[in-house]
Amino acid sequence: MLSNRGRDTSPELAVRRILHASGFRYRVDFAPLGGRRRADIVFTRMRVAVYIDGCFWHGCPVHATMPRINTDYWRPKLQRNIERDLETNASLEDAGWTVLRYWEHEDAARVADSIAAVIRGNPNSGAKSTPDPLQRQNCDH
Fold first, then answer.
1. 34 lies in a domain?
2. Is the pTM value of this prediction over 0.85?
3. Contact present, 49 and 63 (Cβ < 8 Å)
4. Cys-Cys link to 58, which of 53, 74, 105, 139 (CB 3.0-4.6 A)?
5. Does residue 79 lie in a domain region?
6. Would 127 be classed as within a structural domain?
7. Which of 47, 34, 38, 45 is CA-nearest to residue 6?
8. For residue 126, what pLDDT band results from cuts at 50, 70 and 90?
9. Rounded-to-integer distance, Cα 77 and Cα 83, Å
């Protein structure tokens, strides 16, 4: 599993490029509360943590699949990822952070627009903290 990227995935890079071109500056692969739980994109001053989650690893309701081989290993492992997402959301929100979660299959421009709206403080953007990792912003599937 070492070949699975923890950062700089294609969907993440696409969103970061758009945000950077729009003038936003942010931290990458940063732990907002310290420790091991790291967000993909973090706006420290605004206290916004952005996660661009992989469909397989985080249980996308549209694209996630369960491996047919070694199911007894994979089922609890993948379920624990979803539980960890919920715990991370709760910890960050309790500390006053806004958590934004998106799926890797979502359009990078839409994701970047949603993030930008939150950073700019547009309350009507439709983007908000999502405690349920199965309910992400802008999911067009």
1. yes
2. no
3. no
4. 53
5. yes
6. no
7. 38
8. very low
9. 10
Residue given tokens 């994701």 in the structure block: 111
β-bridge mates for residue 102, sequence order: 52
Domain count, the chain: 1
Alpha helices in the chain (DSSP H): 10-21, 55-58, 71-94, 108-120
Token pair for 102: 């998106």
1-49 pLDDT, tens digit per residue, is: 555 667 889 999 999 999 999 999 999 999 999 999 999 999 999 999 9
Tokens of 47: 């206290």
Provide the domain limits for residue 113: 10-120
Q: Identify the CATH number of the domain in which residue 57 sits.
A: 3.40.960.10
pLDDT (tens digit per residue) in 43-100: 999 999 999 999 998 989 888 888 899 999 999 999 999 999 999 999 999 999 999 9
Q: Which of 48, 82, 131, 23 is nearest to 40 (CA)?
A: 48
The C-alpha R_g of the chain, in whole angstroms, comes to 15
Q: Is residue 16 part of a domain?
A: yes
